[in-house]
Amino acid sequence: MAKKTIDQVDVAGKTVLMRVDFNVPLDENQAITDDRRIAMALPSIKSVIDRGGKLILMSHLGRPEGKGFEAKYSLAPAAKQLGVLLGKPVAMAKDTVDEDAVAKAAALKDGDVLVLENLRFNSGEKKGCEEFAGKLAAMADIYCNDAFGTCHRTDASMVAVPRAMEGKPRVVGHLVAKEIQYLSDAIGNPQRPFVAILGGAKVSDKINVINNLLGICDSVLIGGAMAYTFSLAQGGKVGGSLVEKDKVELAKELIAKGGDKLQLPVDTHCGDDFGNIAGCNKKVVPAGEIPDGMEGLDIGPETAKIYADIIKNSKTVVWNGPMGVFEKPPMDAGTKAVAQAVADADCTSIIGGGDSAAAVDQLGFADQVSHVSTGGGASLAMLEGQKFAAVDLLDEA
Fold first, then answer.
1. Which residues on neighbouring strands pair with residue 351, listed in sequence order?
2. Theoretical Cys-Cys bridge with 226: which of 20, 50, 203, 222, CB 3.0 to 4.6 Å?
3. Residue 176 — pLDDT band, cuts 50, 70, 90?
């Protein structure tokens, strides 16, 4: 599935239209509170401008209505911060495909950078509009996708633009190339034992992932609140735990299908006040024996030990979703034990974005795993075995 990268095309004197993910968090004063997404795009950006290319960057930010400019969703703060990180001026267009953007794109000199205004200010972006895409495509000689977080979507900038640029180079940036290498290749041809760790709140969010991974993994370890739906399916008591009663039959089917591959918790750390975890009554009980008035908040220590032993012997690990309420000690113990085991294992370890990435980062293990995905929804979709039109359209290596 390897795709041609931006480094493999001659960009000198040419204009590159690059889809990036500058969907950064902003405070009430429009100040960026975390610029990692901008910083992570720098290798692809520098690959173009350091080799004499002209660069047009496009991204969405937040969820504007698609009816024109909305100040709180402007990409101007991102353009400004990019200029700081690059140490050079970065031009900012007032629109996406209208007069100002077209004029500023035409005025670019070799090594210059232009950021277009938020793609979602135009309703054509979410609709995948070909006319909107055609206007974006007309600005450039080369298309580059470096926004893995939106690769599972069919927005105009992801699918219709590269389609409109057929015949011109259509490549991936460094971030997308790395995601494909780890997520696609590890799943398609994993070293074994191959272990998947799945947590989070809802079975319904992970049905397709569990189904797909049961077919290709050696072990699938279940944690998080979704474990209580499985517990209910086995006739267990779950107290006030978060469960999906309408998914109990489905959980039974997954248990039957999974057999020994599907590993469920054997004990649960529970408490009687989610709002005051530090001060509430807490105890560890066998799985399926959570008393009334208490709810499961983490896997128990025996489960953590069993899971750590399985992970220790693995050669490939994919992890999506924390084991418990990792933000609130002591209910971070299960997630911490699993993170430590993944960090210590002699394996290729892939953390699937979202809460798992936040947990690994917060607990200090981000530097000890092979790859932390930049896209929660996209990494889940890839783990489900979905095909991405946004990637399939691009040039093969």
1. 319, 372
2. 203
3. very high
